[in-house]
Amino acid sequence: MRSRVRDVLIAAIAAGVGAIVAATALPLEGQAPAGRGPVPPAPAPAYRAPRLADNHPDLNGIWQALNEANYDLEAHMARSALQLRPGPYGPVPAAAVLALGAVGSVPPGLGVIDGDGTIPYKPEALKQKKENQDKYVERDPEVKCYLPGVPRANYMGHPFQILQSTKAIFMAYQYAGATRDILLKDPGPAPIDSWMGQSVGKWEGDTLVVDATGFNDQSWFDRAGNFHSDKLHVVERWTRTGSNTLNYEATIEDPNVFTRPWKISMPLYRRLEKNAQLMDFKCVEFVEELMYGKFRKKPLTGE
């Protein structure tokens, strides 16, 4: 009887030792067996956006850019004002913006232009851009609350809302009440040129591609004087990259102003407040005195 018990115990101990040896011989996670290279970790699964009934990604939400692109698309250092004049020891704020102090200064920005980070102006167009910058207060259409145009509407520092169904896509912007109807069937060339142009959308996989044409030549890309002509053509790409992020790209072409097409890209972020909504920013009334005060029977003084 004792010999049988002993044999059972010996067998159990041997099995346990064998299991321990086998376990220690297995490679740890990310570690290759002896004589082999490291095992790379398994790639994270690609993000898959929630779908609408037509199986296209759901872009609905209130979104906003968090960058300095509206000041200047190109990389730039901080400076004292958007409009400058020569000073005794370097540029100083122009008289028209001097009283704004730090409020009128320009924060630094890394830039949002792909490639070499510069806008490929033709020589004469670059001169106009610099002149625009020198006369910012007079010329920037944002100062007078004109519609922002495309792509500027998407990174002005105001939120905007995408409203999407299986049959329609609409974009509403807080700034100046601007809107865009993304047509899902191409009607042909835009009947007239306008501030916001005509936008025609289609899906390429999980990306909404919007072809925008039919612009006037009045809008700017930013506060730095970057501009275009009425030959502007913008192709946008909207892609969900996470629960609360969109990747936005815009390829810009204008043969009258630029030597080649160029592209900007940036993330857009969902507004997550419980009561997130677009508010009223109908700024036309804010600039009535600026634009029409001089026509008063008794204009107000400049003081």
Write structural notes for this entry.
The protein is of the alpha+beta class and 303 residues long. It has 2 domains: 1-41, no CATH class; 61-75 and 110-294, no CATH class. It has helices spanning 2-25, 123-134, 136-139, 288-292; strands at residues 61-65, 84-85, 92-93, 160-164, 169-173, 179-183, 198-204, 207-213, 233-242, 245-253, 262-270. The strands form 2 sheets. A 9-stranded mixed beta barrel has the order 1-4-5-6-7-8-9-10-11. It has a two-stranded antiparallel sheet with strand order 2-3.
Unreliable spans:
19-23
Domain unit count: 2
Helix-and-strand structural type:
alpha+beta
User: Secondary-structure element order, as H and E?
Assistant: HEEEHHEEEEEEEEH
Largest sheet: 9 strands, mixed, barrel
Q: Give a count of the beta strands, DSSP E runs of length 2 or more.
A: 11
What is the overall silhouette? globular
Trace the largest sheet across and list its strands.
Answer: 1-4-5-6-7-8-9-10-11
Instruction: Please give the alpha-carbon distance between the first and last residues.
Output: 114 Å
Mean pLDDT over all positions: 90
Key traits:
single chain, 303 residues, alpha+beta, 2 domains, 9-stranded mixed beta barrel, two-stranded antiparallel ribbon, 22% strand, globular
